[in-house]
Design goal:
homodimer; alpha/beta; Molybdenum Cofactor Biosythetic Enzyme, Chain A; Alpha-Beta Plaits; 2 domains; six-stranded mixed sheet; four-stranded antiparallel sheet; 12 strands
Chain lengths: 251, 251
Amino acid sequence: MTNRIYTAGLVVIGDEILSGRTHDKNIAQVASWLQVQGIRLSEVRVVPDVTARIVEAVNALREAYDYLFTTGGIGPTHDDISVDAVSEALGVPVIVHPEARAILEKYYADKGGLNEGRLRMARTPEGAELIPNRMSGAPGIRIGNVHMMAGVPHITAGMLDALTGTLEGGAPLISETVGGFIPESEVSTLLRDVEKAHENCQIGSYPFFKEGKVGANFVIRSTDRAELDACLAALCEGLEQAGFAFTHGGI
Amino acid sequence: MTNRIYTAGLVVIGDEILSGRTHDKNIAQVASWLQVQGIRLSEVRVVPDVTARIVEAVNALREAYDYLFTTGGIGPTHDDISVDAVSEALGVPVIVHPEARAILEKYYADKGGLNEGRLRMARTPEGAELIPNRMSGAPGIRIGNVHMMAGVPHITAGMLDALTGTLEGGAPLISETVGGFIPESEVSTLLRDVEKAHENCQIGSYPFFKEGKVGANFVIRSTDRAELDACLAALCEGLEQAGFAFTHGGI
């Protein structure tokens, strides 16, 4: 654990997200997992199933951040082109990975055996390692700082589990939340002043509309527990002085 | 309605999405709405509440696509910096928009009146028009091809309603879905061949895991009804010949 901040980018690959057909669950899932590893998700790009667009996004984000994750496009069908695109981005050929092939042969042994589509899932960029997939055989792929995961959220979850503790991270960002039926427009000056007075903390204000009333959750984030606690105390004091009721943990 | 394809980019602004705290709902919402307008969502970038990062994403996507949408960061608090960032991206000053100010004065007349935070929501890039917000007063902002919407999904929904029919679009992308408890790895060759035979159609394959079984939905997309129907018929015939049960509309 160091004071350095570790960052990651995420490329979500898939026409189904851009068409609105599928509600993405991987952004929040990868973000939460990275948080625990002490790595900050710094940018997400959602791109269509078009090789040139995947290549561009992968190259931009793998160079800008410590780690790059991709989700989607590593299945058996013709629209699964992520391996080809990442290989092109890295300038390496696509190979059939012997270990991945062995895993798939075993997995499909009692399911009709390997066929052309299933064999596609053994393809990786040359030089890659595999990320175990305990859910459905076909592995994720790790090459350099690039981590290629499935698009189906529960399979991605299994791959993230397999990666837990294997990536170097910094001090995790910790947070405290207070919330109430408080119009954020009535406390904007307070929030700004409390944040200014606690320089290693950020305060985010997230309005909501519930039970017919407006309110907001205020989330304080820091990598330092003592500073976080001091900032929290100052915010709570300010809200109390202004006569607002609030709940720790948020609403 | 023309044959030209109209495209849009979306910049989702907000630390709360990148921390995993908030599950984004605006990507799917904006995507579905654009689809109906005949506009294709071509790229999404999620960026933090950092001016330089917003400026970079806004400039990249407003130049690359016909329309740019942003969500988030137009509220009353210190972390709402989208107006400043978009103004910087466009090279115009931030002004207090007289019409927006009048709307907010009226909205807050019986809620304690305008204060510093509330007045922030009357700020726009110079030259902007307003997008009505029937939910909570503070308007969205339209300047050039840039459309700035709220982060809170139900407010964004109201702003999208207000924009319905005001943007030029092409033929809407239409789709048909068939799905079944069919392992996609058993039909990958069929999918590829059917897609190849229908050049104005794309077939997406979206695997799922339900009731303890694997399956997939196959979504055919086209801007042409006749070609879509022909492609659908060919896919259904192929699935039948292979002995698979499937459901129109997907599972």
